Amino acid sequence: MEKRVDLVEGNLLKKMFQIAWPLIVANFLQTSYNIIDAFWLGKLGKIALSAPTISWPVIFTILSFGMGFSVSASALVSQYIGRGDGESARLITAQAIVLSTTVAMGFTILGVFISTPILKVMGAKGELLKMGSIYMRIIFIGSPLAFANFAIIGALRGWGNSKVGMYSTLFSVLMNLVLDPMLIFGLGLPRMGVLGAAVATVISRGSALFYSAWVILSGRVGLKIKSSDFKPRLDLMKKLLKVGIPISFGQSITALGFTVVMGVVTRFGPTVISAFGVGQRINSIITMFTAGVSGAVSTAVGQSLGADRKDRADEALRIGLFATTAVVSSFCVITFFFGKYVTAVFISEPDVMEVGAMLFRYISISIPFFSAMQVMLSAVNGSGHTVQTTVVNVVRLWGLRVPLVFLLSKLFGMVGIFYGIIMSNVGAFILALMVIKSGRWKEAIIKRREISV
Q1: Where are the domains positioned within the chain?
Q2: Could you tell me the pLDDT band of residue 354, with boundaries at 50, 70 and 90?
Q3: Residues with Cβ < 8 Å from 334, sequence gap 6 or more?
Q4: Widest distance between CA atoms in the chain
Q5: Which runs of consecutive H residues, i.e. helices, occur in 219-269?
Q6: Where does residue 349 rank: exposed (0-12), middle (13-18), buried (19+ CB within 10 A)?
Q7: Of 190, 184, 203, the residue nearest 40 (C-alpha)
Q8: ∠ at Cα 256 (139, 297), nearest 5°?
Q9: Which residues are CB-neighbours of 93 under 8 A, at least 6 positions away?
Q10: What is the DSSP letter of 395?
Q11: Which of 69, 89, 217, 428 has the most C-beta neighbours closer than 10 Å?
């Protein structure tokens, strides 16, 4: 396995491709979690399919904290590597694992207790409330596994290796592919329905963490963590929190915004919830390319700034914007014209297919703007200036999407939700462009040899 990619020297396009393609594959595999769940649960009907759909925004609100620490680990490790300080990169990685796992345990306890009350506030009732609560609690119980893996994969991405994350996700998805039908329908095991989908996801995430942990403890890719590195270091945790808290807070606040939007969607009933759930999953597939390119941009920017190469950081952003806009726009043309048939792959009920077709005709217009925004913000995250990305994301959801969806859904009904999403994505693109134009993101946040080992 290739140990790491140095993005400071050599052909940047080629080097970024080496980082991006495993991330794209990993994102596709990660999206398969929801696709696989949706495929099997759709066979049980609209209520079973709606349970994880209505639960996911709440789950994502909590998981976003773990993702924030992943960004923090990636930004710091990439800049230390750019400066040639491998020891600091190693220590930061270990502390990121300790910190993120500890935080996850607290959120696990919180999540178990808030599941049912939040779903009630979102409008879930009866069987949907029961199934959604079960699904949400099980996912929360397994969240420390996800948090720890987020930290490892983020650090390795900053190190210059994205293949470990791809293989880790592959093991996890294969496990989920086997367990889902067995646990949902009781193939050789008790029939568990929605609960089975949640249990399969938790077990699968455990297998992903097992592989990732083995890699960094064995030193297989050059980054080898020692047992002594896991001794808590408050100075390093403070550094991780300084970078990670803004992005964790921002992602959680935006995820909470998605929860509010889902509450509006829920008021239109299971048909709209099911179509919206399919739309979310397909848009996740489309934007997986964006996520891969964004990861490459973030790593390239971090390593370049660590090496005092601002010109290299600029070039990485330009490459990322061109690639993601071209590819995502092509996919959106397909969903714009064939959204009805895409929806039918998951659930063939005529009313859901019609709503799905309408959703794709509207939402496809704004996805290229959203993708370009994500690439620009990834460059800022790579520099470690996460407060700026937090502001953009919070404004996108709470300043634009939530109020627009509330207002426009009352004025225009279901289609008003789509109007609000389009306007918020375009507005956020403009805000991200303003951040890039300011130039502040091109300043590194680390100093040479600032950590005592």
Answers
A1: 12-442
A2: confident
A3: none
A4: 64
A5: 234-266
A6: middle
A7: 184
A8: 85
A9: 73, 77, 151, 152, 155, 159, 216, 223, 225, 229
A10: I
A11: 69
Q: What pLDDT was estimated at residue 451?
A: 55
Distance of alpha carbon 316 from the chain centroid: 21
Closest CA to 60 of 354, 257, 278: 257
Q: Is 5 left (phi over 0), alpha (psi -120 to 50) or beta?
A: beta
Q: Are 107 and 62 in contact (CB under 8 A)?
A: yes
- Per this entry, what is the length of the chain? 453
Q: Tell me the mean pLDDT in the region 106-114.
A: 86
Residue 391 has pLDDT above 70, yes or no: yes
Instruction: Report angle CA 35, 278, 250 to the nearest 5 degrees.
Output: 85
Give the model's pLDDT for residue 1.
54
pLDDT at 249: 81
Q: Are 219 and 1 in contact (CB under 8 A)?
A: no
Look at residue 453 and tell me whether its pLDDT is greater than 60. Answer: no
- The answer to whether 104 touches 146, Cβ cutoff 8 Å, is yes
Tell me which residue has tokens 């077709």. 357
CB-based contact 17:177 (threshold 8 Å): no
**Of 337, 356, 342, which Cα lies nearest the Cα of 272?**
356
CA angle (13, 15, 16) in 5-degree steps? 65
Which residue is associated with the tokens 């993005």? 7
Is it the case that residue 380 has pLDDT exceeding 90? Answer: yes
Q: Is it the case that residue 11 has pLDDT exceeding 60?
A: yes
Q: Give, in order, the Cα–Cα distances in Å from 211 to each of 45, 207, 215, 328.
A: 35, 7, 6, 31
Backbone angles phi, psi at 450, to 5 degrees: -90, -5
Of the chain, the percentage scoring pLDDT greater than 90 comes to 41
pLDDT above 90 (res 41): no
Report the SS3 class of residue 219: coil
Question: Counting beta carbons within 10 angstroms of the beta carbon of residue 264, is it exposed (0 to 12), middle (13 to 18) or buried (19 or more)?
Answer: buried
Higher pLDDT, 5 or 348: 5
